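Q: I'm writing a short methods note and want an example of a predicted protein-small molecule complex. Could you take the sequence and the SMILES for thiamine diphosphate and return the bound structure as tokens? Please keep the output block clean; save any remarks for afterwards.
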Amino acid sequence: MADASNMDGEQVDGATVLARALKAQGVEYMFGIVGIPVIEIAGAAQKEGIKYIGMRNEQAASYGASIIGYMTGKPAVCLVVSGPGLIHALAGLSNAKENCWPVIVIGGSSEQDQEAMGAFQEQPQVEVARPYCKFSARPNSIERIPFFVEKAYRQSIYGRPGACYLDIAGNMVNATVNEKDVWSSIVCPPPPKSYADPESVKEAADLLYYAEKPLVIVGKGAAYAHAEEAVQELVIGAQLPFLPTPMGKGVIPDDHELCVAPARSKALQEADVILLLGARLNWMLHFGMAPRFHPKVKIIQADICHEEMNNNIKSAATLVGSLDTVVNQLNEEIGRRPGKFAFSKAAPWWKILRGKIEQNQQSVQKMMSEKSLPLNFYAAYEDIQKLLPKDCMIVSEGSSTMDISRTMIPNYLPRHRLDAGTYGTMGVGLGFAVAAAVWCRDHAPEKRVVCIQGDSAFGFSGMEIETLCRYKLPVIIIIMNNNGISFGLDEDTWQSISESSDLTLTSPPTSLMATAHYERMVAAFGGTGYFARTPEEISKCVSTAMNKREVSIINVIINPMSLKKPQDFFWLTKSKI
Ligand SMILES: Cc1ncc(C[n+]2csc(CCOP(=O)(O)OP(=O)(O)O)c2C)c(N)n1
Ligand SMILES: [Mg+2]
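A: Understood, no commentary inside the block.
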């Protein structure tokens, strides 16, 4: 470390060196919770113009930072204290890793000369973070901090995006060095574009050209890559049936006639050629295996990551590269082919899919029209979705709440559905909502953020309603309250067993308090709460909340035994091998 007394020139402290390095790379947001030894880092970041969002739990802070990465393709920072602060943030690191989102977590850590002595909150933090990170490191001097920042930034967005961790020793935060000795880093350029092998592109075009039952699956990798224009050109140009994954929704609007989401199971089971665009054959797509997929299906994979190719089953064609460029290559190749594709709209494949879509729509229609109280999810969602603006950002988490919202709440724009994702993580919702709302405030002030959560999901990070109110972020939180994790007890049963027995022995492990008034919580911070049981009350509350620019909680009472359609409920278990 430089000795200040012997140096000419400006002295600069470690916090400032770090903040300037982050700013130089283009970091716009820092989420976190401060304490020893990172308070000065948050202050220095603000001084450089990085917006600091103080959260109530590091889990939510790390989720918030990572969703900025997904939405913008640039990492945000999550700033945490040593030991337990970092341990809480591992939630967001692992969630980002599984979802392939860029994020940089920065943890303060104990002083270097107290290493192994039992220092305050001492923890081998670089090692603790490493399993979830593409890069986990501790700068060895203040002067070299910018080198590490650039490397973390670059690693988070190059190749398959992911999480990075930087450990800042407590003694480096306030110590000063001579500014002229500080490492001057390059500003990380955007990820270089990569192209698929033209031979593979030809193979893929042939497979699609001769397919009788083609299907395109649009994943969140396509959304992340901003590939919507190329994907729309491909799907609409060749009139291919498509299916979005939950967060791939909106790359092509859900209401497009080529969307076969209501015939999902049938489409997966019978398709003979499937093109995967930024979607992985993991549990969400039943590993690409029979009986959920046709045993002879030919898979074409398009993905940024080599290692993802041929995962679980052997693909017929592998297109490795940036999603937008790869799809454009495919468009060009398809454009060179004469005549029509085998699967014109009159093809038997379309008849099969249309039949299934109609059948499914009828059964959904039936559930929507059952308006007896307490309402089922479909009936409640019908009234909610009518009032949501087409451009709003939907945050969604829960079990039934989330799965049914996938069908019932349409998305029209890419990167506008933020949900529990590949890791199925409950508790992400409010962190996502804070981040999405801050981003909207700064970049799309007319856009609303609507956060639809189960009553269990809301509870994981419920205190972030104070964060929303503190920063005046007018998020509408809709709690689909069915008294539990997927289901619960009705009010009378709850009342009677709570009076007559020891609930720790008798209440079903899924149950939460019956008809809890979550909406009352927000009044403590200046927001407005609404309680809605009937379709009329739902409509009134949603439209009132939409017309105000404040934090709202709408507590929607759902039948505690209202479940998904049977095929949706067992979609996960059936796929197990
Ligand atoms: C971090 C984490 N903890 C626990 C779970 C297990 N889990 C799955 S869904 C869920 C909550 C579902 O209940 P709710 O949010 O009320 O939605 P509902 O299905 O009732 O609509 C839980 C706890 C999880 N997925 N993630
Ligand atoms: Mg619930």
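A: Remarks, as requested: The chain has 23 helices and 19 strands. The first helix runs from residue 14 to 25.
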